[in-house]
Amino acid sequence: MRIATRGSALALTQARWVADRLGGAELVEASSDGEPGDKSRFVRGVERVLLDAGAEIGVHSAKDLPGTMPEGLEIAAVPEREDPADVWIGAGGSLDDAPEGARVGTASLRRRAQLLTARPDLRVEELHGNVDTRLRKLADGDLDAIILAAAGLRRLGRESEIGFAIPVDAMVPAAGQGALALQVRADDEGTIESTAAINDLQAMRELTAERTVVALLEATCASPLGAHARVEGTRIAIDAFVGLPDGSEWLRDRHEASAEEPALAGAELAQRLLGAGAREILDRAETQS
After folding, report:
1. What pTM value is reported for the model?
2. How many CA within 13 A on the CB side of residue 279?
3. How far apart are CA 270 and CA 266, in angstroms?
């Protein structure tokens, strides 16, 4: 069994975690050289290895996967999900008591929009790079705080860096945040059967609902859109946020439905958001960004 992965420290850690649970696998580092575009080029690099039969499984941070994927590929399994929350690292013990005018680093329009919705006084600054690079900029005093995903920090053993988790009602996570998606060729029945052993039904249902919202809103990984589902018993609840990057206009909604039909639940929420003007907000967000 071969697993295609990006070469970053976090991606390799995640791929090794999956390999261990599958009983061992060879890691194949995918190159993004020659792939156009934004961070989705890293996803395309892994997908190209799969389509060229250079590996049987591609391991992705589910939040990086676009709403649609190349023909011939599918998500075969989603292991147990890590904490999906966004976390604050730096000065302050909650979003409400963060220092006035604090310089907060993030590359995410979704985080920027929700930060400025809650705290218009904050100075949100562009922050790129891997986890170590971002933490270093904070330590060097370039910023007062940064926002990262709890899941990545936990998987890297850096959870001690976390100041506080930001509640979902203040910052809706990205669709798929905290989840890993195991992507395979749709006709590879043997690998699909093998990955089923580590599939978590709850995590798969949550991801399905969230990705349905993203797909029907025709959003991208860069859109200021949050979608977070939670399965509790026989029900699934989905929270969503759509807003302008400057925090001046936004929509929030929450929908609850049967957990057995997560795609339908996501579609119902997406239709409500579209009816309230979500697509128009996303179109204007593109011009702002």
Report:
1. 0.92
2. 9
3. 6
